[in-house]
Amino acid sequence: MGVGVAGAIFGQAMLYHHAAPFVAIFSLMVWPKRRHWYAPLMLGGLAGTLLAAGWLSAVVLLAWGLVVPLPWYRPGWQFLRWPLLALGAAGLFLAGHAGTSYTLIVAALVAAGSILLFFLLSRELERVLVGDVDRRTLVLALASLGCLIAGLAGYQIFDVNPSLFFGALVMLSATAIQGPAGGAVAGATLGVTLALRGGSADVMVGILVAGGFLAGWLGTKHWRWASVGLVAGVLLYAVFIQMPSPLKPFWVSMAGAAAVFQAVPDSVIAIARRWAESFAGVNARDLLGERMTKIADVMREMARAFRVDEEIQAPETQLVQSVVESVCKKCSLYRSCWEDEFYRSYRGLMDLSAKAEDAVVTDEDLEGDLARRCIRPDAVAHATNLAMNREKERANFALRIKESRALAELQLTGLAQLVAEMAQDVQATPTVKRRRWRVEPLGYRVGVAKRPRRGGVISGDSELICDLSPTRVVFGISDGMGVGPRAAWESGAAMSLLEQLLMAGFSQPLAVRAVNSTLLLRSVDDHFATLDLLLLDQEARQMEIVKVAASPTFIRRRGHVFEVRGHSLPVGIVQDVAIDPITQPVEPGDVVVMVTDGVMEDDQRSGEARLKRFLEQMPVGDPEMMAEALLSFMLGDSQDGRDDALVMVIVIGAPSSVAPYAEQADNGAVPEWQRITPISLRRG
C-alpha cells in the first residue's frame, strides 16, 4: 500500500509541465532488489502520471515498465539498464509535446540527469546496506525527499500545500541538526524542486533559502527558535524583495509546519544530531586498524634490533692473552719470549691451544722453540687448559644467547605479522552488516561422540560449538599431536583461542593463522594440532569450511553423500599456513559429519567409503544418537582403537538445539581438556 502511494506521488511530479522520470528511476532500483514492490510502484506511478501528465505519458510509462525485466533476462545483459533508463526518461519528457530542437536538447539533459541520479542512489543504497554511510548519504536522502515533494506539489488540502508543509519540516529538521548551512541547502533543494514543476524559480528558491538560513542561525541558539527563524526569514524576503504566489497556501503551510515542529520532543532532536554526527565522524575501526599497524611496525623494528651481532674478539687471541697475563708476564724470560721472539712464542701457544681443544695438554705437548726456551712448561700447560675451558663455556653461552636472540627475532616478527593481518581484517570488516533480504534462518541440531585410544582415559580430540551472532554459529574439531593428555591440551588450547578470536569478530582464516603463530611462539619443540572449522550462516544459508590437515567433511544432501577436502599442514609446524576457505550452500535436511582421523585409522580410503555407505543408509534422527552410531560402526566391536576418535553430526533445518554435553559446558562444567591443565586458558 505504501509503495503504491509513493508511486502515485512520484508519478505526479512534473518538470516544467512535462512528466518527470522519477517513477522510472525508482522502479529500476526496485526491480533487482525487491521485485514484489515493483508492481504496486508501477501501478501507483501509472495512476499518478495519468492524472498529472495525461494518457499518452501513462502509455509510454506502461510500455517502458514492461521492458524493465529485459536486462535481467540473461546474466550478461544488465548493461542494458543504462540505455533503457535514458530512453524511458526522454520518452516521458517528450510524450505529448512537439519534438522541437529545444525540447530534444532538454530531453537529452533529463536523460543524462536521470542516469546520474540513478547511479548515485544505487551506489549509496549498496553502501547503506552494509553500514558504510557518510554525509553523501544525507545529501542523496534529501534528493530522494525532493523527488517525493515534487510529486506532492500537485495537491492542496484546504489551504495547506503538502509539498510546502513537508518541505518546511525537512528544512526545520536540517537547521536543527546542521545549523544555517543545513537550512540553506534544504531550502535551496525545496525551492528548486518546486520551481522545476513550473513555478517562478527566482521567488521560490530565494524565499526558501532565506527562510532556511535564518532558521538555522537562530537554531544555533536553541533548536526551537528555528521555527521563528523560518517564519521571520520568509516574511523579510516577502516584504523587502518579492511576495510568493499563491499567498495564502504558502503562509498556512509554513506556519503549520513551524507549529508541528514545536511539538517535537527534545530527545528526538538529540538522537537525530548524534545520528548526523556519526556520518562525519572517524570510523573507530579505521583508528584501531591504524594503531595496530603502528604497533606491528614497532615490533618489526624491535626484531631488527636482535639481528645486530656484537663484535667479539677472536677466541684464539683471547686464549693467548690469558696465558700470557697469568704465566708469562711473571716469568724472568718474558722480554726474551714476547719481545725478541714474539712470533715463535705466539705460534707455539697457538699450536698448544689447538691441541687443548681436543684433550687436556701437559708440558710434553709444548713443541719447537717455545719448548726449548720455556722454563715453566707445566704452568703454561695448566693455564692453557684453564683458558680453553673458560673459552668453551663462553662459546656455549654465546651460542645460547645467539639462539635466544634469533628466537626473539622470530617471535617478534611473527607477532608483527599477526598484528598487521588483524589490522587489515579490522579495516576490511564493515562496522555494521545488514542483509538485503530477510530470510527465515535455518535451525540446526548438533551432537558429538568421542572415544580415547585403546587403554586411554583422556581423549586428545577437542570440539567447539560457538554462537557468534543470532544467525551465525561455528563448529570445530581439533586433533592434537599424539594421544592422551598432551594431545588434549594441544587441541583444546587451539579450540579455546579460536573461540576467543572468532567471538572478537575476526575471520576464520585470520583466527587460524593466529593459532598457528601462538603454537609456534610458545615452544621450540614440535607441537601441532589439526583444525576443522565450519561457519554456518543460518540466514544466508551457506557454510564456510576451513580445513587444516583435517579429515574430509561429509555432507549428506537428498540421500547422496559427498566430501569436502582441504590440503595444508597442521598448525604449529610452519610459519605460514595455507588457508583456503571452501564455501558451500546449505539446504534444509542436510546432514554434515566432521571426524578426526582416528575414526578411520586402519585405511583412510576404505574407511571413508565405509562411512559414506553407512551415512547414506542412516535414518535422520537425534544427532547425538547418529554420532554414537557412526563412531560405533567405524570402530567396530572393540569400541576403541590406536588413536583418539571424535565424530560431530550437524542436522540442518531443525530447531536450534545443542547436545547435552555442550549444555553442561555452558552451565559451568569444565571441558575435558582443561581438567588436565593446571591453569584455565578459557575465560569463564
UniProtKB/TrEMBL annotation:
Domain of life: Bacteria
Upper taxonomic lineage: Bacteria, Bacillati, Bacillota, Clostridia, Eubacteriales
Matches recorded under PROSITE patterns: PPM_2
A GO term, aspect molecular function: phosphatase activity
UniProt entry keywords in alphabetical sequence: Hydrolase, Membrane, Transmembrane, Transmembrane helix
Transmembrane segments: 7-31, 37-67, 79-96, 102-121, 137-158, 164-196, 203-219, 225-243
Listed Pfam families: SpoIIE, SpoIIE_N
Name the UniProt record assigns to this protein: SpoIIE family protein phosphatase
Domain PPM-type phosphatase, residue spans: 445-652
Keyword Iron-sulfur: no
